[in-house]
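Supplementary notes for students who missed Thursday's class. We covered one full example, reproduced here. Read the sequence, then the structure, then the short commentary at the end.
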Amino acid sequence: MFLPVFLLICVATNLWAFVAFGFDKVAAVRDQRRLSEANLLGLTLIGGIGSMTASSLFKHKTGKQPFRRNAEILAGFHVALIAFVVTLLV
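Structure (token representation):
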């Protein structure tokens, strides 16, 4: 019973991260106020798949180091945590 709720939360946080990265890219192009790198990394921690997908799709923050390296580490941690929780719940 908890597994479907957990997966729904994962989908929602990844979608949230994806959309946030998209909005930040639009703000960057328009030279408007943007999300801080700390906020983007926080979103990557809770929605790693969505944020990395958006980053690649929108070509956003792909060349910025150490941001990209930190984002990849956090996204990997996110995926590992999901896999760990799913194995516990199955």
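Commentary. The mean pLDDT is 90. The radius of gyration is 14 Å. If anything here is unclear, bring it to office hours.
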